[in-house]
Amino acid sequence: MNLIRIFILLGTLAAFSFGASSSMENLLFNGRWAHDNGVSRASAPASSITFNAKASAISVSLEGHSRWRLDRDGKQIDQFEIDSKEVHTTKVDDDGSFHKYRLIKISESGAPEIKFHGITLDGEFGDAPKPSSRRIEFIGDSFTVGYGCEGSSAEDAPEFDKTNASKSYAYLLAKGFNADYQVNAFSGRGLVRNYDNIVPKWTLEKLYDYTVMGSVTEYPKPERWNFENFHPQVIVVFVGINDFQGNPPYADKRKFKKAYADLLSKLRKAHPGVKFLLLSTKIWPNDDLGPTVKAIYDAEIAAGHDDLEYKHVFTSNVALHGHPDIHSQEELANTLRPIIARLGRWLSR
User: Fold this and answer.
1) Do 111 and 245 share a domain, yes or no?
2) pLDDT score for 28
3) What are phi and psi of 284, to 5 degrees?
4) Strand, helix or coil at 160?
5) Do 259 and 150 fall into the same domain?
6) What is the rounded CA–CA span in Å between residue 331 and residue 237?
7) CB 168, CB 332: distance < 8 Å
8) Radius of gyration of the chain from its Cα atoms, rounded to whole angstroms
9) CATH number at residue 185
10) How much is the average pLDDT of 317-337?
11) Parallel/antiparallel/unpaired status of strands 135-140 and 180-185
12) The pTM is what?
């Protein structure tokens, strides 16, 4: 299965049901989710839940400090914040027709994970949305998260309020291609060395194997991701900014190159036939990322691999803490769109 399909009996959610809306619902999840005893957990930015409904009101039960966006037929109709465990209700225009709704986790900072307890409506659920024939994965850091992209300056904090994963280049590309997706990105983390060497044990090299990356230290045996649950056709790898930025010492380039090559090998084995887009950008102070990733690409080509492309990108980092703002995220998506279309053979929407 390319997406995990979960059926929830809403009649068991009497604590937050209203009217006569309780019914059996079919949900589709994008992103990495752990499902345990009727509760679904996630931490990845842009994790989402999609469903078809005809309703005048939608209530979602969520837990964990987080920000959310609700779309109807691809257009935002609500944005809200959850502090602990609560139910949020959105009034919608019931025109008698079924519409496709998507609930998107737009925050990253906050709780190490969020919990989804269910949805009820004042209305009726339709058939489950069909999985897309297109699947894409993004592996990265804060640039991929959309960290601080709504900030108007480097100091326009707090990051919790200014981060919006639904305005990151990753989500924009997935939405534009009408593709199912994962955004496996974590701010401040590098492949083998984190920004300023924070939590050195938990780099992306280690975190990537877990389902809920944000809460690996919260559980004695955190759940490992089952790569059979989602087989992307294209993977965009944009890692290394934190390996070579911040206060030194920076990552050992030989170790970085080996870890990068090992990651590509692991992904090829997990997803036969997958295509890669390797990204780099200019960083401060030594600008080591571009030459290092280009060298990795050249080595892959020399080894006979023809399943990848490389692109050095430029962003206008005028948002919070020197990150791309929403306009730069849009420009980045526009730059990458034709390359990804070629890799995935997605020549039309």
Assistant:
1) no
2) 94
3) -110, 145
4) helix
5) yes
6) 18
7) no
8) 20
9) 3.40.50.1110
10) 98
11) parallel
12) 0.94
Does residue 349 form part of some domain? Answer: no
**Cβ-proximal residues to 239 (8 Å cutoff; 6+ apart), any chain:** 139, 140, 141, 190, 191, 204, 260
Check whether residue 107 and residue 252 sit in a common domain.
Answer: no
Helix axes 289-302, 253-270, angle to 10 degrees: 50
The tally of domains found in the chain comes to 2
Taking the C-alpha atoms of residue 225 and residue 276, their distance in angstroms, rounded to an integer, is 20
Q: What range does the domain containing 185 cover?
A: 135-344
pLDDT digits 0-9 by tens, 32-84? 999 998 899 999 999 999 999 999 999 999 999 999 999 999 999 999 999 99
Secondary structure element (H or E) that encloses residue 310, with its range? strand 308-313
Residue 21 has pLDDT above 80, yes or no: no
Name the token pair of 311: 């692109």
| Within-domain flag for 130 | no
| Distance in angstroms (rounded) separating the CA atoms of residues 41 and 241 | 28
Residue ending a domain, among 125, 143, 174, is: 125
C-alpha to C-alpha distance for 128 and 133, rounded to whole angstroms: 15
Indicate the DSSP class of residue 165.
G
Helix (H, G, I), strand (E, B) or coil at 135: strand
Poorest-pLDDT segment among 22-36, 65-79, 151-165:
22-36
* 88-143 residue pLDDT tens: 999 999 999 999 999 999 999 888 999 999 999 999 999 889 999 999 999 999 99
State both tokens at 16.
Answer: 């937050």
Q: Residue 120 gets which letter from DSSP?
A: E
Please state, in angstroms and rounded to a whole number, the distance separating the CA atoms of residues 22 and 125: 10
Indicate if 109 and 235 belong to the same structural domain.
no
DSSP 281: E
